[in-house]
Design a protein that fits this description.
Layout (H helix, E strand, L loop, with lengths): L1 E8 L8 H12 L8 E13 L14 H4 L35 H23 L18 H16 L3 H8 L12 E11 L11 E8 L4 E9 L5 E3 L5 E8 L2 E8 L15 H16 L16 H15 L12 H26 L7 E4 L5 H8 L4 E5 L6 H4 L5 E3 L15 E5 L7 H9 L4 E5 L11 E2 L6 H15 L2 E7 L8 E8 L6 H14 L11 E2 L47 H16 L22 E3 H6 L3 H8 L4 H8 L4 E4 L2 E4 L14 H10 L6 H5 L33
Parallel strand pairs: 9-10, 9-12, 10-11, 12-13
Antiparallel strand pairs: 1-8, 2-3, 3-4, 4-5, 5-6, 5-7, 7-8, 13-16, 14-17, 15-16, 18-20, 19-20
Organism: Physeter macrocephalus
Enzyme class: transferase
GO biological process, one term: tRNA methylation
């Protein structure tokens, strides 16, 4: 046995030992949070158990040679650090004793305390399956609980028949302690699912037994492997344990390996011991004492993680070339791989829905507010009939080809914007239309379902405003959309996607709360609910209020025969306005060039006329000291600008700060203060940069005049050969024109 690492945990809010078991639950249920090479886990089965009693016919085991011969080298117990091996009274490792100093009442109290602690440790793992105590979440290929019983019984017999070193590893002491204490364990069987990777085809899912000993404060991980006859057994070479211990007033968390000399690391399911003892240990220590607001579902809780992992990898390989031909100014890596992950989720969700309904026809869909249209392209290419609608056409639409149906139009929620023949309505960052999608789905047909991924916060009319400060605005908005779906008659489910975005909680309405015959009365209830939101009143149980007006921002969506210029007749709720077709740029980039240049010169003169800070000579002694100016707050700079300039800047998003940050060649803006950029302090370019960055730098090198060469009293602080900007027209290079994108 070897201790890989030990850390002291500061617990000012007295969250331990409960916080330890909450942290363990994260590693057991969602190890991909720490190990990014994993896709997730599937909890197969769970049972209560106990360690076997060991009958002693001779003297107790000692640390002498006879004991060491019973185990492979390096696998027997060793003395760890002196503190923290056993718990003082009241600690998580306190064991009831049969000694005379403890009477029956105290022994009974300790047993009750142990039961309470076991329930506390069990609770996080049962959160996925309400109403099914003692069972883990289900998935495809579920492992029968009887098989877990058989596995554990075989392993227990091996412990009792002489594998005392492993038994001592479980009990944190010699096997003789089992004569003094016999308490229950929680045993969990899980399947660890690595991310699918074409470069590593052997990354098959692995099964593990997780043993939680709450009274001892340990959780032990036992990997399983198949023997020559195909039977599963414990793989003793990769057994490790996480311990919580206490000494005096300090808590400790440790990670130990049973047999370090035989540890085999594949770098994925079984990381290197250094990673366990450093990275994982540090994360566990942090999770133990973090305040958890919670309120969100586990990632991918509504679909099979294994199927999702395979589908996502297949789609990623199939559509990865989209990154190379992406014509938009947006980041292709983020948008392509986010839509790939979203498409994988929907494909598995719909596949499992077809299996539940006994159907074979692929679901149809309409993506309202489809934006770049990539999600529509992927879903259509994978065999689902559908289309996307957005108020503004994107350049990338021409890349997909005619098979991908994308329409440029705006939508106005009324009786003419229904989709009676469509199975699913999708709202992926659909902004102003997000709260309307459950309403449109409910009124399109009884069989129409919806999927929304909320991002920007909009009410039915205008911006959304929360009314409960106890919740975050994001949580409150999700609750509001859930309330809308419920008011429309849907059973609304929530899931957390695995996408590169901070807003990754989706809401799904797959079934109704009423029979088809009740459609008339339910629609009257929908109308009353919509009218109750007029002007922002909140219905009972709502978590947020109404809007402050019709003005809103974000990419709006789809239309069926209406344009923004059409009269808004027959609206379901008056005051709704779709976004204008022309995209309004308000990041200071559209301001007149002479206005920007004038503000830059004015701010630079303010800074250069201020107090001199850290004036130092150039690296070349022949160059005089370069004036780098002073530092001013944004408020101080704004106070020196005239009213008309401030008025024009106020109409832009971010105002003065955005303009100065756009002029990054001249200024540095940090923590609300601005100063002249000193290019001598810039980090040297890395030799091994990504190809995209190297290409961008080479394309822009010497394509713009150096501002300091043209305007700074001391000129540029860098010599011409080191400055990325042109020192005079003679060095100016023409900007490279982008090649025309070819359709795939």
């Amino acid at each position: 046995m070897a201790e890989l690492g030990r850390v002291v945990v500061r617990d000012p809010d007295s969250l331990l030992p409960g916080g330890f078991w909450a942290a363990v639950a994260v590693w057991v249920e969602r190890p991909q949070v720490a190990n990014k090479r994993l896709c997730g886990v599937r909890l197969e089965a769970r049972r209560s158990a106990s360690l076997p009693r060991v009958e002693h016919s001779g003297p107790r085991p000692s640390s002498g040679p006879e004991r060491e011969e019973q185990a492979p080298a390096g696998c027997g117990p060793k003395e760890g650090p002196g503190h923290g091996r056993r718990f003082p009274e009241g600690g998580p490792g306190t064991r009831p004793s049969a000694g005379p100093e403890h009477g029956p009442q105290e022994s009974q109290g300790r047993r009750q305390q142990g039961e309470d602690q076991r329930e506390a440790a069990k609770a996080p793992l049962l959160s996925r399956v309400p109403g099914q105590p003692g069972k883990a979440g289900a998935g495809e290929g579920d492992f029968p609980a009887s098989d877990l019983d058989s596995l554990w019984d075989d392993f227990s017999r091996s412990l009792a028949s002489g594998n005392r070193e492993m038994l001592a590893f479980f009990t944190r002491s010699g096997a003789e302690s089992q004569l003094e204490a016999q308490h229950g364990l929680d045993v969990i069987l899980r399947t660890v699912i690595p991310k699918t990777n074409t470069h590593c085809p052997l990354n098959a899912p692995r099964r593990e037994i997780v043993v939680q000993d709450v009274l001892s404060g340990t959780v032990t991980f036992l990997p399983l492997e198949e023997d020559n006859e195909g039977n599963l057994k414990v793989k003793t070479s990769n057994v490790y344990q996480i311990q919580l211990s206490r000494s005096e007033e300090e808590w400790f968390i440790s990670v130990l390996i049973f047999c370090p000399e035989r540890w085999h690391s594949d770098g994925i399911v079984y990381p290197k011991p250094t990673w366990l003892g450093e990275e994982l240990l540090a994360r566990l220590a942090r999770w133990c004492v973090e305040s958890r607001q919670g309120g969100f579902k586990s990632t991918l809780s509504l679909i099979s993680i294994m199927k999702y992992s395979r589908a996502r990898q297949a789609l990623k390989e199939k559509y990865k070339d989209m990154v190379k031909v992406w014509p938009e100014v947006t980041d292709p890596e983020k948008f392509v791989y986010e839509d790939v992950a979203l498409a994988a989720y929907l494909l598995i969700l719909w596949e499992e829905e077809r299996a539940e309904r006994g159907e074979t026809a692929r679901q149809s869909f309409v993506d309202l507010g489809c934006g770049n249209g990539l999600l529509v392209h992927i879903l259509s290419s994978e065999g689902h009939p559908g289309r996307g609608i957005d108020v503004r056409r994107r350049k990338v639409w021409d890349v997909y080809g005619p098979e991908t149906r994308l329409e440029e139009s705006a939508i106005i929620p009324n009786d003419e914007t229904l989709f009676p023949d469509v199975d699913w309505l999708i709202g992926n960052h659909s902004d102003e239309l997000t709260p309307w999608i459950p309403v449109i789905a409910a009124r399109s047909s009884y069989n129409c379902r919806f999927f929304v991924l909320p991002c920007c916060f909009f009410d039915f009319v205008g911006k959304y405003q929360r009314r409960q400060s106890q919740k975050t605005q994001y949580r409150g908005y999700l609750d509001f959309i859930t309330e809308v779906g419920s008011a429309c008659g849907f059973h609304v489910e929530e899931d957390c996607l695995r996408i590169p975005s901070t807003k990754r909680v989706c809401l799904i309405g797959k079934s109704r709360t009423y029979p088809p015959a009740a459609e008339g009365s339910v629609d009257e209830r929908r109308t009353r609910y919509l009218n109750s939101r007029r002007g922002g009143p909140v219905s009972p149980g709502a978590s947020a209020g109404g809007a402050d007006g019709p003005e809103g921002r974000g990419a709006l969506v789809a239309g069926a025969g209406h344009t923004p210029e059409s009269p808004a007749e027959g609206l379901w709720l008056s005051g709704f306005h779709p976004r204008e077709k022309a995209e309004c740029v308000r990041n200071c980039a559209a301001l007149p060039r002479d206005f920007i240049d004038r503000v830059v010169l004015q701010v630079a003169n303010l800074l250069l006329g201020g107090e001199q800070l850290n004036v130092r000579s150039s690296q070349s002694r022949s160059v005089k000291a370069w004036n780098r100016g002073g530092s001013l707050s944004l408020a101080e700079v704004a106070g020196e600008l005239d009213r008309e300039t401030l008025r024009r800047l106020k109409r832009e998003c971010g105002g003065l700060q955005t303009l100065l940050r756009n002029s990054s060649q001249v200024f540095q803006v940090l923590d609300g203060r601005v100063r002249i950029r000193d290019w001598r302090e810039e980090r040297p370019r890395k030799e091994k940069e990504p190809e995209a960055k190297r290409r961008l730098f080479s394309e822009t090198f010497k394509t713009r005049i150096c501002w300091f060469f043209a305007h700074h009293p001391d000129g540029c602080v860098l010599p011409s050969d080191r400055c990325p900007f042109a020192h005079g027209p003679g060095e100016l290079r023409p900007a490279s024109s982008k090649k025309k994108r070819q359709p795939l």
